[in-house]
Structure formats: structure tokens, C-alpha cells
Design brief:
Layout (H helix, E strand, L loop, with lengths): L1 H18 L10 H17 L13
Helix pairs in contact: 1-2
């Protein structure tokens, strides 16, 4: 769930940079934020980082 939220935040930042036409350097461009968001979304859909690891007690 945390990777999905992080992806949404990166997509929102990318949208703000693109909509406000903010001039940034090449590292902080809207395309780079979009690609990072897609990477986090792909990891979220793949199930990585979605749940907490719990220890199971055997009886």
C-alpha cells in the first residue's frame, strides 16, 4: 500500500510541474517523476512492499 501512495504522490508532483510549466533541471523534470511513479506502481502491483512481514508462532 505504501508504494501505491508514493506513486500517487510522484504522479501529483509530475502533474504540478507540467501544469504550472515550472522550469526545472533535467533531474527534476516531470518525465522523471512520471517514470519513478510508474516504477513504484509496478512494484506495488507486483506485490513487493505491500504487506508487513509477520512472525507466526508454532504451537
Amino acid at each position: 500500500m505504501m508504494l501505491g501512495i508514493a506513486a500517487a504522490v510522484l504522479f501529483f508532483i509530475s502533474f504540478l510541474i507540467n501544469a504550472a510549466e515550472i522550469s526545472t533541471n533535467h533531474v527534476f523534470s516531470s518525465g522523471n517523476f512520471m517514470i519513478l511513479g510508474l516504477m513504484l506502481l509496478a512494484l506495488h502491483v507486483a506485490g513487493i512492499g505491500g504487506t508487513w512481514a509477520t512472525r507466526s508462532r508454532r504451537r
